[in-house]
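Why does this matter for the project? Reviewers at the last site visit asked to see concrete outputs rather than summary tables. In response, this paragraph embeds two records directly. Each consists of the residue sequence and, immediately after it, the corresponding structure tokens. Nothing has been edited or filtered.
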Amino acid sequence: MSERTSYEPGTPSWVDVSSPDLDASKRFYGGLFGWEVEDAGPAEETGGYVMFKLNGRNVAGMGPIMDESQRPAWMTYVATDDADGVAARAKEAGGSVVFDPMDVTGAGRMVIVAHPAGGVIGAWQAGSHTGAQLVNEPGALNWNELQTRDVDGAKAFYAAVFGWQPDDQDFGGMTYTLFNVGDTGIAGAMPMPSQAPAEVAAFWLAYFSVADCDESVAKAQELGGSVLGPAHHLEGVGRFAVVADPHGASFGVIAGEPPEE
């Protein structure tokens, strides 16, 4: 189902990007995905946070860089009914709390946690903002994937924090871990690419659906972005690529397999 009004706890429900230049990022993502922009509320309350919208529905968010140590990046948020419990479980599982649980106006309650194998990830306890209202459509969130050098460590961490159950599968000769909530696959994990510099920590990658992967890659470059992983096809998945916006925030674009006739 493409339209969403709620998310089961443990399911990724939202993504947002941090940017050092909100106006430039609005132009980039608007040109790439056709997103429109709406302020999340008064700037003095939201810090300048904005909603990206597609066909009138919230699909992602964006906020400013908060300090010089923060790099532009996409953040994945997992739905929860207890943000404080996520913080406690993350610490018990060997992780840390980057931002303590906090209320965000009336929109909800959030926490951001980190783990050496599990990367940095947020949890969102919904108030008036329930998450992405449109998914799995061109221009909307499609998938969330962890890249890590310690897949087993990530499995243990996320089982403890969110109750995710891992399922290792063979994808094109590579072991790919599918994280499940019940019988539903909700995210994935794979070994960090060997060409990644040693200082690159585990990270989450958000994938967005597009109608044509190659056209989207070309458009991203035209708008000032760069290609990190050239487009390629994987049977049963589709054609996908990894790109970065002009400020270096990486994300994926994917055009799924056409339906069988």
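We now turn to the second protein, recorded in exactly the same manner.
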Amino acid sequence: MKSAVYFASVRAYSDREATTQKVQRLFDAAGFAGGITPHDRTAVKLHFGESGNDGFISPVYVRQVVEKVRACGALPFLTDTNTLYLGSRSNAIEHITTAVLHGFDFAVAGAPVIIADGLSGKNVAKVGISGRHFQTVSIAGDIVAADSMIILSHFKGHIVSGFGGALKNLAMGCAPPEGKRAQHNARPFSMPEKCTGCAACMKVCPGKAISMQMKKSVINQETCIGCFECMHACPEHAIDINWETEIPLFMERMVEYAYGATKGKEGKIGYMNFLIRITPDCDCFPFSDAPIVPDIGILASKDPVAIDTASFDLVNQQQGSAASLLITLHQPGGDKFKGVHAQTDGYRQVQYAEEIGMGTRAYDLIRI
């Protein structure tokens, strides 16, 4: 059977088609209220954006979801987890401060911010999944404690997973640092022939696994935590990983974590993907690059596999922007995410998620 994915275009022709109204209508059309009961502690899971980033979902849109959840008699709270890398969200104090500076305060978004894995990422619950790679996964304690969830995802590119949508938001977003580390597992290596000795990689390494030897970067594979921050930071692209062997396994581990984040909440999770300002990289970057395709719209579904598949298809149906990081595959039908990060295959996410029973890639796109 196909899963229903509801779609609202960004196009508007009157004041009755404001994006805020479309968010509310999508919530209703997808039947999210049916999975929320009175007095539920409902986690509204999203990404508050790294300091300097402005590609995240607008708190004005988030408020529409919060109001719908509260109309169900539930208790909504905005949430995310602490990061593995150093930045403005590696502990709850700085994380909440960043969220508020980005507009996610009660006055705008209408709900309190609670960092789900606690002050320093130690509020952790073990969830059994019996997967190919994990028998148990580490999920943020307040995600597990929540009675229901609405997953709000900014759909965009990613240097390792190809794209980030509902599945990645569940997986990395609901995991504390120890869970993020377990998913990554892969270890980057430096290429001395390209390294100029600028030490940019060493400065961003949260595990202090990088040293400069003979004016070249050296990564200690034993102490490396696999966060890939060095790859982002290197201006010479002198750090790499084994894409053929490491990345498919990374995606499978990531999907198993996504599955673990949903355990115990069957029928009580709704998903919305925002295909607006589709940047080439994730909102963990301290900046936002130009979109790779035009804005498309917003999707809602109860099936995380179907909504990510539909999002992937809609992005690839667009003409790519020449004034962006998109290098190839600009034509409609081309895989835009491979056009940005040629060595990734984001579609493996939805394939494996379907294999382990998280949903189906078959969908009906219903326009509202």
